[in-house]
Amino acid sequence: MKIASIDLFQVALPYSGGTYRLSRGRTYETFTASIVRITADDGTTGWGESTPFGSTYVAAHPAGTRAAIEMLAPALLGMDPRQVDRISSLMDETLLGHNDAKAALDIACWDLFGKSTGLPVSELLGGRTNVPMPLISSIHTGDPEEMRARVADHRARGYLGHSIKIGTHDRDGGPAVDAERIVACLADRRPGEWFLVDANAGLTSETARRLFSLLPDGLDFVLESPCPTWRETLAVRKASPYPLILDELATNDDDLIHAIELDAADGFGLKVTPAGGLTPSRRQRDIARAAGLIMTVQDTVGSDISYAAIVHLGATVPPELLRCVLKTSDMVTLTTAAFEPIESEGGVLPPESPGLGLEIDEEVLGAPVASWS
Ligand SMILES: [Mg+2]
């Protein structure tokens, strides 16, 4: 099997909740997805997606994703898409960094690999555990009681994990408002629920310590991504009575190894696109597993194609280490594909169909913005 052609599509994904509000005053209304179709010499197609969360979340933005794919795609023509590690190495030799662009191409290769064998991607990644994976909500910042209501809405829809966003400027109330948000969102906690308090690197070690002093005892949550630097994160780690998991600070193998070496965290958010696709994510899954780190399997954001990659990868994480997966497609209003994971009360499992199990809606994608053959 050889890669015969590659097409790139870009579509706008409006946020399903209007305006998404993140720490340090960042707001988002629409995300731009870069979607890749790789066609093999036998006519089989594989699909992948990369959707950065605006331009101020991690070091990625949609125009950059497109520009990097324009550099990478010609190098991949003629390669065997089933040799995912060789493809990953070739992309690293062609362009340093720019994992967001590599991710879309890598995911499309895995989709092709699965279709070529008749197996779901989860089987090729090591095999599904068959334990349903809880879904996690993404509760952006707002008034504490309004955030509590959004947690309740997700609870009613079967979500067992809740990611509560914090990180308020002092001029807007600072740690006192963040403390109110945490208390409000945890107030109606049900058995089996799991709470993240995610600052998206929006705290300093000073604001984090003030927040801890304002919280009542006995709150059961995990603190995620408190600060933007290692120095601050390690200071928070020392001062925190709460378990800590990394997100924005740990996106590549080296970050993860560094975190383990420093005992900087109890877990990390395994995000497919910042990692560079399913190939590096698989490696990070195994490094984290060896260190006994808990994982949430997520992505920055994305449509159904991103969600499919998350579901297949998440299904291969041992259940004692997997806390939840993010349904990215629930965060946007545009449907790019039919994707039907097996749903139950405890969560989701990947579909049994070959590859990622997607039926792409090509009309929604429109014409390619670039093509290579
Ligand atoms: Mg996070």
From TrEMBL:
GO biological process: peptide metabolic process
InterPro entries xref list: DgoD-like, Enolase-like_C_sf, Enolase-like_N, Enolase_C-like, Mandelate_racemase_C, Mandelate_racemase_N_dom
Superkingdom of source: Bacteria
Sections of the chain in a coiled coil: none
Cofactor annotation: Mg(2+)
Keyword Nucleus: no
Start and end residues of each Mandelate racemase/muconate lactonizing enzyme C-terminal domain: 144-243
Keyword terms, alphabetized: Magnesium, Metal-binding
GO molecular function, one term: racemase and epimerase activity
Pfam families according to UniProt: MR_MLE_C, MR_MLE_N
Matches recorded under PANTHER family: D-GALACTONATE DEHYDRATASE-RELATED, ENOLASE SUPERFAMILY MEMBER DDB_G0284701
Family indicated by similarity: Belongs to the mandelate racemase/muconate lactonizing enzyme family.
Protein's name in the database: Mandelate racemase/muconate lactonizing enzyme family protein
Species for this entry: Rothia santali
